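Schema walk-through. Below, the input block comes first and the output block second. Nothing else is stored per chain. Lengths vary across the set, and this one has 1053 residues.
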Amino acid sequence: MLVAAAPVPEKGQLVSVRDRFWIVKAVVPSTLPLDVASGERRQHLVELSSVEDDGLGDELTVIWEIEPGTSIRETGSLPTPRAGEFDVPERLRTFLDAVRWGAIASADARTLQSPFRAGITIEDYQLDPVVRALEMARVNLLIADDVGLGKTIEAGLIIQELTLRHRVRTAWVLCPPSLCLKWKAEMENRFGLEFRIVDAEAVRLLRRERGLKANIFGHFPRLIVSFDWLKMDRPMRLLREHLPPDRNAYPRKIDMLVVDEAHQCAPAGKGTYARPSDRTTLLRYLAPHSEHRLFLSATPHNGYPISFTSLLELLDPQRFARGVKPDPLALQNAQIRRMKADIRALGPAADGRARFPERVLEKIEVAYPQGEREIHALLEEYARSRRAHAPSKQGANATDLITLLLKKRLFSSPAAFAHTLAAHMSSLLAQPREEDTDRLRDAFDRLNDDYETDEDREDAERDLLGRVASVSGPLDAAQRALLERMHAWAQSNAQRADEKARALIAQLRSFKDERVIIFTEYRDTQAWLHRLLVNEGLGGDRVRLLYGGMDAEERERIKAAFQSDPANDPVRILLATDTASEGIDLQRHCARMIHVEIPFNPNRLEQRNGRIDRHGQPQPKVFIYHFVGSGYSENAGTLDGDLDFLFRAATKLETIRQDLGSAGAILATEVENAMLGRSADLNKIQLPPRDSAGVLKAERELRERVDEMHQRVLSSIDELGITPDAIERVVQVGLELGRQSPLEPLALPPSHRGGAPLAAYAVPDLTRSWASACENLYHPVTGKRLPITFDNAGANEREDVVLAHLGHPLVMQAMRLLRAEIWARARDAKLARVTGRLVDDSNLAEPTVILDARLVIMGSDGYRLHEQLFTAGGRLGGRTGFARLNVGEVQRALAARGDEQIPRHHQEEIAAAWERLRDPVFAAMNARAAELHDRMMRMLAERATTEEASLRTVMMQLHAAISREIEAAEHGRSEQLSLFDATDSRERGQVNSDLAALARRLEEIPGEIARESERLRRRYEAPHDIAFPAALTFLVPRRFANAKLDLAGARRT
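--- output ---
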């Protein structure tokens, strides 16, 4: 006897699988042959998309016939009123708040949620990128804000908002190796988003747990991976296994690709024409597999137009092409760039303080003794001799690189100089070999890249020394003698203080108990300084070291201690190398920084300064210290002259920060010229004059935009009802439903800025699944359990309390438990989802029922096009027993004042009449859902038409621009593609490659327009919707308090 087959769901139906609720995206029948005689039935692969509020884009694929516990639900069920079980009004309002905060109206770009799911105070200007992203069908944004404005925060807001709107599920962050930990901590601590770092150890652990075939790129939706690890052979093999061979395959494997320090992926080079690097090649492979792209860089333009346009092409190939001058309007739409000075000009923040501090440069004068001046002179003599006796131009160029490396080390410390000088002398013993000097220059430039450890950087430098030595020619006797004299000096001074170190120690003593950061490029200098400070009684717990390659947990402990109130930890001096300090925020209790040496690369210098000159710095001024010779000599080739030039370059940096990328490249060249004894002129660096009318217009537009962002936040608070009291109620009710102890109210004293005491709550010891919500309630330094507050503004800059925002684990757990009540079976439900209120007679004439429900509209590809909460309702009683209300009447009824619960006899009357009322109420919900559906269909149709027209316009503009550029190149008039050295075969080959790429891109555009247009049409065609009832509210005029409602339709008395 054959068992009746379970019904197979249809596309768009609501189903229950694995105790969760899903919408069916697709049903694919098996194509395998059947054995009909045995009664075998065809199986079906069912693709599902979560409709639960906290599903955050979760998807699932099952074989329906063998998946246990599946069921088809036609719709969510209306709650059933039962006398004596009505929820008190405030309790139901709390439930609806939790549901409302989880249902994002995807089509509404005005209401924001991400600012309320961040564990920090968000500045109004930081909302501009997320608002811009919501206005884009496909997010392709270059956030080029100044160092310290909060680009990571802005990226987190975008990821959070698009995830909530179900536009993003998979998100990858591609960044320098030194920033991986920062991204993981920022996303988790500030936004409640779990990201996992992908590296060799993570691959090994996954394969041990899941087998050798497990691919880490498909294992978790949110990943962080470093450029340099991913471009290696083994990771690339895993990546190619995960990504489809067709770069046009849809849906994309990666919903959101974030590239931090994106300028490091742009083509680079010291010639006149930039060439792609390994990172460029990596991003060109990866980017086409992402739907949305977010590039972050404070210096997106490195001075090479071809490099900048290549970066723009990687960001948005539908608007930009490498070698083609970008359309100004297209660039304006794709790039967001604000400087600290622009934000400062907006006036003080809401609390009256300056938004960013003033930066003050200070000199530390050093009276260098004759011995130190002589060693500098010996290095100059050695460099001149090597350059003069170089066997070729390539050898002379290689000598220049050695000179720059040795000078940088000499200006840092005797210990650093001794290390590199010994490595150089050792490299000269190696056998000569052929080297491409252009590649040597590229290797030298890569020393400015971000390395994971200081050891990696030193290995790269040691390798470069060996390579340049092989082409710089043999030593003669005089050169060997110079090297030996320098080596003897370095060895004798490598363990003791020089004059600069003594000046540094004197400066540190003058700071007394203030915190200060001391930056150096080199681990040798760091270790040398640490020994000297210990010998001077400034060591012990007062000084800590940060360097690349140290234990990650120790690094985080030191960072937390330095960012904590000085009363919590004795650390006052932080000795840091560049490698360890990329991307760390150190501004909270430190406003002083000393540079042991001035980096020759201005970007590196600005990155250092940005550790304390950034968003969240409470002091009105930050002080940056540089060493100079007391003689202030401008004589090129002398120690004082070189140091004075470097200080003037650091001063010049302050005037070109608005265009640090391109102007910084010129500044770096002039610094190198000066260090090599060539003519150097800092006045060559002139930014184009800013039109005063244009400046005023830009300031006005920025002010208007920031004001608009502020109004967006206020509007969102009003629309969503997100207030500290509302969030507190959600947590308290959630704890009660979860059978946990309640929060204990307490008042914290005013902050150091004054004001009123802060309302806070002690969190009790929680059990079971709630226990993990307490893990981040401990102070990172003292280990003390902290209370929580729901007041965002009150928590700002306080260390004695944790902000419980919507993304905090405790709040999320409470909301999850409340929202689960929508799907709870009657026997398991903890809420009735029904309440009744007595309201003022002046506000309402007749007893009324209001139904809160949720509408979800799905595209044909399973893409969630829209969802929202809505209300429907009707008057009760009269001849028909129920009369549907229109939208305005529903809103007026909801606005009726009164929170007193209806009496027991009203509850009994409603419960008795519910069988007659259920169908009319359900019909009212469906009628309102149909109205919303029709309105949304019109809006979505308009959106589809607009997006398709915009796509076609943008791509035809690109087609025209490429055609013009190719024609100009053919006639020798190309502004960008002609900027190459015709004698350089590599640059000539790159130009030919770029021209060929433009020709291919021109051929691809028509097909891409057709393909993308079809994709847009498929997304918006044949959408289906489903409505889920959430709660019932019965409103009764107070005059009926002691009377019957007569819901059967009899005449009232």
